[in-house]
Amino acid sequence: MKKIVVFILLIASLQLSAQEIALLKYKGGGDWYGNPTSLPNLVQFCNAHVGTKLNTKPATVEPGSTDIFQYPYIHMTGHGNVFFSQEDAENLRSYLLSGGFLHVDDNYGIREYLEREMKKVFPDKELEELPVNHPIFHQTYEFANGLPKIHEHDGKRPQAFGIFEKGRLIFLFTYESDLGDGWENEEVHHDPEEVRLKALRMGANIIQYVFEN
């Protein structure tokens, strides 16, 4: 019965707030607030190029709050520790299984903490690397080689990992790419225009995929 109620709540919320996205404020001491200009810039790009009408000021939500059910796409980033309480984990699980989507972009250093905490959310699921033919790389913008490299950290190739439920991608982890840095204002990292455009286009693909699936 609880899952049915949560599902009804999510559907009703998405009908009311289908054009809003949110940033996840998590516990643990990691800088969940990193890259403050990234999401607003991504929203502006999506509204201009892929036909969305997103609220230009993304919301901030906490993993244990029912507020998360208002948003079809929730973004998470940071460098450090992440902690989900059991209540947080159960709420996130209900959100994701009911039609929500969580995208975590590693701003460098979050992977070990994220993998530990996602085991609380889905004890029986593993992160799976997305193949280059996954539809998320082939929306308005074509990324034939998969996730693009935006910033270099450890000389590793960029990878996109996912968690699936009945064939549906419900969780995306972008690693060794640093999309969020590419979404930031130019003066923050002084990335060339072609690098920022590559990051924004991949971000737009993710948003478009979420809203259409």
TrEMBL record:
It comes from the Bacteria. Keywords: Signal. This is DUF4159 domain-containing protein. Transmembrane segments: none annotated. Residues 21-211 form the DUF4159 domain. Residues 1-18 form the signal peptide.
